[in-house]
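step 4 of 6: structure.
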Amino acid sequence: MRHPADPPILWRALRHPKDGHTEDECEDAWAADPGAGRFAVADGASESAFAGLWARLLAEGFLAAPRPRDLSGWLTEARNRWSAEVMGLELPWYAEMKREEGAFATFLGLNVRPKGPARSCRWQALAVGDSCLVRVREDRSVRAFPVRGSLDFGNQPPLLGSRPGAAWPPRRCYGSLRPGDRLLLMTDALAQWFLGSHENGGRPWEAVASLLAAEQPQAAFADWLGELRNRGGLHNDDVTLLSIEPGRAPEE
Amino acid sequence: MPYTAQISRSNPTALIFLLDQSSSMLEPFGAQPDKSKAAGVADALNRLLQNLVLKCAKADGVRDFFHVGMLSYGGRVESAFGGALAGKTLVPISQLANNPLRIEVRTRQVDDGAGGLVNEKFKFPVWFEARPTGRTPMCEALRWAKEGLQIFLGVQPNCYPPLVINITDGQPTDGDPRDAASAVRALASKDGNVLLFNAHLSDKQNRPIEFPQDESGFPDNFARLLFRMSSELPPKLLEAAKGAGFAVGPTSRGFVFNADLVAVIRFLDIGTRMAQSAR
């Protein structure tokens, strides 16, 4: 739990569907509870049905998890909620077959734990698949988790399924959050662009920072993505960006 | 670079099956005496169409990444669709999804988890029923496909190049099909020429010749004819064939000769692999 004297967390989330799709059809999801220091993104696999719903239930499930260090307990709860929402629906044969297979999504959860006003926060992240956490420090150093480089993205990332059964073991990462740091949670297409740009000597966090500082960040984000896609710099995919930075500590 | 266009709802591609329904299709495959070639191909095709629909299906409907055509040639050339789709050449895949002739409930045996087998029921939508009769007017079928694709390409000039898969067990009876085949392959979108793949079914137990690079080892002139009618595999399909363990090279063509049912299914799987990239 956070203490009232802990520095606030500044955060912002942006989401945009792939070209030719509506906002309703976007199958990325994010959830945030800055008071509890919990943040999550999930990327529903478009080959599966009810994937957007599954991504949302995963992200929201993490926020309410009694133990955010692993998947135990809350994954089963999210699966039960998915079943409750879709198993009773009357569907045409093809949607019925897809439902039987279940929905799939990547998942990335972040838990930020303050250490009191005088010390920097600690964070821990939990990931299945290729949604990425990137920490940018001092305007230059970049640390990425769980995918480390732009060439490490594949077509078949590990996914969490909505039907009962064994789940991919999640990967974990820990770190600190100091003043001036920024943590970015991104789904795969944007993360791949970000890491590729950095590998080529670019400073992709500057583009991200200017989008977040725009008067209308969502509109600026959509325009920027459209331009990047037209140039071939970004796969046509749903995109989510969640940015987190430590705020100033309240005055004593 | 050709054969790289994104397949999407706003930029769909087309897939046409030409199905030999001459009376010789009533004979069995060499290695499977209890199933006619026509019935085996019908099952393989219906299964393929089901997988294509599932590839495009979401909870709220089916996305039109593809337009699908089926023409049968046995006696005469006609649309192989029935029911609500009867007479149509190319239909968006959402229409295909919503209009199977019927949905059969079939049974298969699966592992019961305790060393035994149990029967499991599964749904099997049927769009195509084999009705072999008469001769083999392949040239006319190719011309029909060309006309359908000309119209499609007029509407979708930037599409991933359409694919025509011709499945036959014998010589055409209406002339030399090479000109008609060239005319199909000469059609093009901005992303490349239309692809024509040929599958030859065998009632002998000879080994199939799959995705050959040249004509060496071909048993007869008919194999050479079908090889010359077939397009080279574009790079991504070449990769897929290599990944599936086929001994392919840079000039391998979309062609299988002496195919049994397993070889037909493998051939259709590789040939339609571009569907995996639709989004």
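step 5 of 6: annotate
 - The CA atoms of residues 130 and 154 of chain A lie 9 Å apart.
 - The helical segments of chain A are 51-63, 74-86, 93-101, 188-199, 204-212, 217-230.
step 6 of 6: archive
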